[in-house]
Design goal:
CATH topology: Gamma-B Crystallin, domain 1
Structural class: alpha+beta
Keywords: Signal
Number of strands: 8
Distance between the termini: 55 Å
Strand content: 25-35%
Oligomer: single chain
Signal peptide: 1-17
CATH class: Mainly Beta
Helix content: 10-25%
Strand order of the largest sheet: 2-1-4-7
CATH architecture: Sandwich
Amino acid sequence: MKLTILFSASLLSTATGAAIQQPKPRETYPLGFEACTETNWTGFCKHYEDVVEGQCYSLVEDFAGKGGISSVRVDEHSYCHMYPNDHCDPGSGNDDDELNVRGSYWDLGYPEIFWDGKPQSFSCEEGY
């Protein structure tokens, strides 16, 4: 008699879904991007918080007349793309049409990068 009751209770919990656990939703993180007019994140700097994934942000208005952008960094869990135009157009697929940023660039004028004063827009996505 005991065995029958336990077996019946087990079947009931499985049939109602009580024993099946739903997967936890993946944790998301706020995205962020900071740009500065001088190397080593000095000069005029602007930090863009709560960046919407995949949305294009123009840097033109915020940095107009300030000499361009010389250093950038992204918030933890952010992976951003910079473009030499104000509408996040990757262009023709040339090496200098887009610069991907995970972490930071303390000097965009560094010979291997050669992006000093170039960034005009950016977009971000979640990255680890």
